[in-house]
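Late entry, written up from scratch paper. The run itself happened at the end of the previous shift, but nothing got recorded in the book at the time, so transcribing now.
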Amino acid sequence: MQAHQARDLDTAERLYGEVLELRAAQPDALHYLGVLMHQRDRSDEAVRLIQTALKITPKHPDAHNNLGNIHKECGRLAEAEVCYRRALECGPSHYNALSNLAFVLEVQERPDEAFETYTQLLREAPTFAHGQYMMGLFLRNFAQNVEHIEQSIECFREAYRLDARNVRALEGLGVSLYTLGRHDEAREVYRDWLQREPNNPIPRHMLAATGGADIPPRADEAYVRNVFDGFADSFDEQLLKNLDYRAPEVLAGALGGVLPAADGSLDVLDAGCGTGLCAPLLRARARTLVGVDLSGGMIEKARARGGYDELVVAELTAYLQAHPAAYDVVISADTLIYFGDLAPVLEAAHGALRPGGWLTFTLEVLEGEGDRYELSSSGRYQHTRDHTQAVVEAAGFEHITIGMDMLRKEHGKIVSGWVVLARRGGNDMR
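Output as recorded:
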């Protein structure tokens, strides 16, 4: 277990195996080896091991909770809920199981039950910082009135007071304050945070996003890397809370209307591949499928998901510039929303495509006319349709189409995006 906690998985797996050679039915070894197997993306084996442990010790709340976590992270929410409820039957004060149960109820869009469970969690474990943070997010995501946003502010403040390492609580606090129009207070949160951590790119970027500093032409690399490495560590929650995330499917659908049959003949770049959600949608068309992302944590998730011939940790514009005429297709789902000035990256994408190649990407919608982009309080850029059309044309593309579609839900609201499809001139694409 010490090796496991130190993330030395090879040693831990070997030692768990030695325990089980000595005593085949040792329940703790079965349980924790199951957890390890899931960490190695062998989740079916993990489930079998923990279920075997529970036949021996059926009232072990930690084992029920960890089995629920595996089901949750595999998207099996009903099975996860059953496991968390069994954990609570065995250990009514098991606050991790209570927190996890509240989360899966929320994701299953059962907000009344989720609220009751979060309330019970904070009543039984008021000093559980993560519980305060989760309640803050829930109140903001499902807010029905101003009071709910105000309550989220108190939860975020308490979460940070209880655990000063939880900087996401500060980010949540700033967003809630800004949502209520308390812009000066939001900026003060980020200024104080930046004063305490002058080298932290998150408060520096968010201060600009709330109007407290000059808007950069694109998000700082360190900010993007920091944010998405953090997302990778909690990927299950980020994915589950965005079950309506549609950008990969929308872009794949746009390409389906212009590409030849899925005969595995194209060289495809997934630009900003994240955890690899585009891979299964592109694999049948690709002779080679390459994913590039600034976040090493996200690349590791994409590697575990599989489907790519190559995965690269790199800054996108520089990578495109270093690979002239290398691709038939470049697809970028919710990556260019971290670029305000799109000209450099689109010019690089044009150069990385072969004649006749296709580029498709998403942006967040900035309402209104005119050639404009803005940095929103979410930390992401939004672009007008006029600006998008102009900058894609200026990069040298033709056959440009720009449609609007729902990309995801956030804070309980639909996020609309531009879905852009454009072609590099020429006829040499396979």
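The longest strand covers residues 397-410.
(Scratch paper discarded after transcription.)
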